[in-house]
Amino acid sequence: MCELLHCKGSWQHKKEIHTHSVEGSSRSGPRRTIVENLLKPLNLEYGKVDPGWGTTSLMGVVMALFAIFLSIILEIYNSSILLDGISMN
Asked: What is the DSSP string of 25-51?
């Protein structure tokens, strides 16, 4: 029983010394870089959401126009629409 207490006591003593040496070490903080200073303002409002629909309608219009553009390109590729001067092999 005494041997167990002695081992436990010495283990805690070593732990305290180790913890003290880590806390007492002189470590420098993170270095600031030019890139960090340039990009930080872009991340200030991360996670903040304004109430309402915002620009959802604008995004819907852009998506619809893009879908129309893709369908026209597909019709040209399938020769559904024939254009003068453009030949598809």
From this structure: S----PPP-HHHHHHGGGGTTTT---S
Dist. CA 76–CA 34, nearest whole Å? 49
Q: Quote the pTM value.
A: 0.43
CB-based contact 42:53 (threshold 8 Å): no
List pLDDT tens digits, range 37-50.
Answer: 888 888 888 788 88
Q: Are 70 and 77 in contact (CB under 8 A)?
A: no
Alpha helical stretches, state H, the chain: 2-24, 34-39, 56-77
- The answer to whether 79 and 88 are in contact (CB under 8 A) is yes
- Structural contact between residues 81 and 72, judged by C-beta atoms closer than 8 angstroms: yes
Instruction: Write out residues in the chain with pLDDT < 70, as ranges.
Output: 1-27, 83, 86, 88-89
Contact 75, 81 (CB under 8 A): yes
